[in-house]
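General statements about sequence and structure are easier to judge against a single worked case. For one protein, we set the task of working out the structure tokens from the amino acid sequence alone. The sequence in question and its structure tokens are set out directly beneath this paragraph.
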Amino acid sequence: MKLREGVKGVYISVDVDCLDPEFAPGVSHIEPGGLSFRDVLNILHNLQADVVATDVVEFHPQRDTVDGMTAMVAAKLVRELTAKISKMKD
């Protein structure tokens, strides 16, 4: 995925509501038939742009009743996004 010419960097906001409840049940609004965690990782890994800032939103701890699975997914997304930002600084 390439950006238009002249775009210097992107802000990525990952709304965990986009994930199928199989991967992230602890969200504000579940999305049956949503993306898999691997789908989101593929999007992030194939993005050919400098990530200048990021956030992960819509995690709902009170609904994360499956052994903290959504918290773990959100943490992994933060790790991947942070790695993308740190690569930019190299």
Remarks:
- The longest strand covers residues 51-57.
- The longest helix spans residues 69-89.
- The mean pLDDT is 90.
